[in-house]
Design goal:
about 30% helix; binds iron/sulfur cluster; 11 helices; about 20% strand; alpha/beta; 10 strands; single chain
Length: about 270
Amino acid sequence: MNPLTSVNFYITSECDSKCKFCFSNHGKKRLTRNNAIRVIDMLRKNGTQKITFGGGEPTLHESLPDFVNHANSIGMKTAIVTNGSKLNEVIQFCKPSWVALSLDSGCRATQILIGRGKANYISRTINLADKCRSLGIKLKVNTVVCSYNIKEDMTSIVKRIAPNRWKIFQVLPTNPSARPLEITKNQFSKFVKRNTIKDITIIPEDINAMCQSYILIDPLGRFYHSDIRWPHEYSQPILSVGVIKAFRQVSFDFNKLKERGGIYEW
Ligand code: SF4
């Protein structure tokens, strides 16, 4: 299988949340709409089947619906990873195959403490999940486990949302402000065990599973290493040197992507 099968394109660094573990620090510059579409086309020609748009908060990028519609039109499966900010508006203009809603807690105070949520974050996430489902969009929940939510039982809230997949990540101590939130692998395993839900596919990813198992592209169309390097290290721009030459400049392990369940029925 082509290693470029599934890629993540982080189209903007702009975000309206302030998660303490955020690892998006690519600066304010980004590609123009047309150049971002050229990157999507180049990825497709080089074997990409699924493209996930993230950020920053991708729904704050005014061209996100164009990117999703274009990727759909050239035969890609599409996904948006979002805190939900402008998702309601975005899905009026495009239909991604998947939406991954970030949710780290069923407790309002914890969600606020982490920095992702405002007062209505949890109820908004539930409403958005219901809306996506009614439109035939498949759902994921993405949860980052850190020292703030490590003792939590999220099974009630996740059962209410009823995603097709629940991705549970051990917090990555990349950003220096994330280091006080670090947890051990053992603590992470206990969280996963406590939160296992029959009938919901759970994908737990500890730090080792995540490192070098994602193909990441920044808002300037450069690959970067998916590990704990900080600041990030980037390839040359895809638009300057092409997909293959740029891709060879970063470390990526396709076997690790397969081992963490990164290839599934899209
Ligand atoms: S929602 Fe995502 S991009 Fe925004 S601050 Fe949180 S982790 Fe960073």
